[in-house]
Amino acid sequence: MQDSPSQIREGLNYDGGKGGLVRVRVDFDLCTSNAVCMGIAPEIFEVRDDGFLYVLNENPGPEFDERLRQAVAGCPNGAISVEE
Ligand code: SF4
User: Fold this and answer.
1) Hey, which of 75, 81, 82 would you mutate to test ligand 1's pocket, going by the most ligand atoms within 8 Å of its Cβ?
2) Digits of tens for pLDDT over the chain (84 positions)?
3) CB of residue 40 inside a 6 A radius of ligand 1
4) For the chain, where are the E strands, in sequence order?
């Protein structure tokens, strides 16, 4: 079962912190689904056949910090942000 893009957008509206975990946010108005981030961190980002980017893990652990930084830097549209 696939979530609709609107559900994903709602999923990015966090209502509270989870104690030290980062929060991944994607500005879907900027994202062009080119899958650069998926190439860097496929455990977190997935562009599906429907052409939309899905955030698989919105609160990844510290083991993903470096690749998250790379994804933020690598996104040509500046669509990804990470809150700590
Ligand atoms: S790298 Fe940026 S533009 Fe490309 S799919 Fe990821 S968030 Fe979207």
Assistant:
1) 75
2) 555 454 444 344 334 444 467 999 999 999 999 999 999 999 999 999 999 999 999 999 999 999 999 999 999 999 999 998
3) no
4) 23-26, 45-47, 53-55, 80-83
Q: Is 72 in the pocket of ligand 1 (CB under 6 A)?
A: no
In the block, which residue shows the tokens 């977190």?
Answer: 44
Q: What global pTM score does this model have?
A: 0.78
Among 31, 51, 54, 50, CA closest to 41? 54
Domain 5-83 belongs in CATH node 3.30.565.10: no
Each domain of the chain, given as residue ranges in start order, spans 5-83
Out of 34, 67, 81, mutate this one to test ligand 1's pocket (max ligand atoms within 8 Å of CB): namely: 34
